[in-house]
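Re: [ENG-882] Designed sequences occasionally contain unexpected residues at chain ends

Forwarding the minimal case from QA. Structure tokens:
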């Protein structure tokens, strides 16, 4: 059994991007599967159910963690297979996602450049099926390894097993708290297939004066767009987009379009239409003639540039942010009859 360092009453303030100053009764960081196994065994004997913490970019803490928090910091990035057109890259769950994107760009491996600057670690990417600008991780996903919490065995899972959906996977439902992801393997392209039609990428590339496309240029365009409209967690506490873009039946969208001609919708293969949660929030408002955009109550608020992003200006509690999210959900439901779902996990 690998020895692990246990820290008692550890502040998690700098380990979650909302900056919530909650405490873990016990805390340890693991950098290998053996250390993870030891931590899980210690928790089973001494601390009850463990809490697995990755990059802390998709969690809203509303209370202290009365148990063992295991920070998954398993490192490593390597090419494990390649053929004439593709390369398979395996990354440890503790690798920063954007660091992996930069590694792939440096080596000219295409497929995740549209996912540049997404916060968090590699281990959370398949759990959330992270996506941005027309690309989701399921598009390049090959497999992952995960440790079963109860028997500590290592399982290998393919895309079909993970049951990916929009910001969804089996790890968020049937497998919640059952496994700890230890590595992820992506199948990337040696010859790029550019996806620049979604959002403002093409326009940003034009503004940048790009004459010849490259995965570096696409990533730089995405980074410019993201930094222009999303706040830096190092400056103001946030977890990026707090809500999912809702999917509604086509007839619901058509009815909304009659009342709100400016509402945008994206037709999906399942026959539904995806709406922009940010637009719905911005146009519902806490009161008549007032926008949620830039709204603030105490230190909890909505970002001035993007109503979809809830922020902690300094000393908001997790419950302050949670209460604000509930008010936003109610206002969108009241005005548009659409129910928003949180993308951020609440503890």
């Amino acid at each position: 059994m690998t020895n692990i360092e246990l820290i008692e009453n550890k502040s998690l303030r700098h380990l979650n991007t909302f900056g919530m100053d909650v405490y873990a009764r016990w805390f340890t960081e693991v950098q290998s599967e053996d250390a993870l196994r030891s931590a899980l065994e210690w928790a089973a004997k001494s601390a009850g159910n463990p809490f697995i913490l990755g990059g802390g970019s998709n969690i809203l803490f509303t209370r202290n963690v009365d148990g063992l928090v295991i920070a998954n910091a398993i490192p490593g990035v390597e090419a494990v297979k390649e053929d004439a057109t593709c390369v398979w890259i395996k990354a440890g769950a503790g690798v920063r996602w954007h660091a992996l994107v930069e590694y792939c760009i440096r080596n000219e491996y295409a497929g995740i450049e549209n996912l540049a600057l997404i916060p968090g670690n590699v281990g959370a990417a398949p759990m959330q099926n992270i996506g941005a600008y027309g690309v989701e991780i399921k598009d390049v996903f090959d497999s992952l390894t995960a440790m079963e919490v109860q028997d500590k065995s290592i399982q290998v899972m393919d895309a079909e097993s993970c049951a990916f959906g929009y910001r969804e996977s089996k790890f968020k439902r049937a497998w919640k708290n059952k496994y700890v992801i230890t590595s992820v393997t992506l199948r990337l392209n040696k010859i790029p297939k550019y996806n620049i039609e979604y959002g403002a990428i093409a326009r940003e590339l034009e503004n940048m004066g790009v004459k010849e496309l490259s995965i570096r240029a696409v990533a730089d365009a995405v980074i410019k767009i993201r930094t222009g409209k999303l706040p830096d967690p190092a400056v103001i506490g946030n977890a990026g987009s707090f809500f999912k873009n809702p999917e509604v039946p086509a007839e619901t969208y058509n009815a909304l379009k009659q009342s709100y001609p400016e509402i945008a919708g994206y037709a999906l293969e399942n026959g539904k239409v995806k709406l922009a949660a940010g637009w719905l929030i911005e146009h519902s408002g806490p009161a008549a003639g007032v926008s949620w955009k830039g709204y603030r109550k105490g230190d909890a608020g909505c970002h001035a540039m993007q109503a979809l992003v809830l922020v902690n200006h300094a000393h908001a509690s997790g419950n302050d942010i949670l209460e604000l999210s509930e008010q936003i959900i109610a206002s969108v439901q009241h005005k548009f009859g659409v129910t928003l779902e949180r993308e951020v996990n609440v503890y």
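QA comment: On inspection the terminal residues look reasonable. The radius of gyration is 21 Å. Proposing we downgrade this to a documentation issue.
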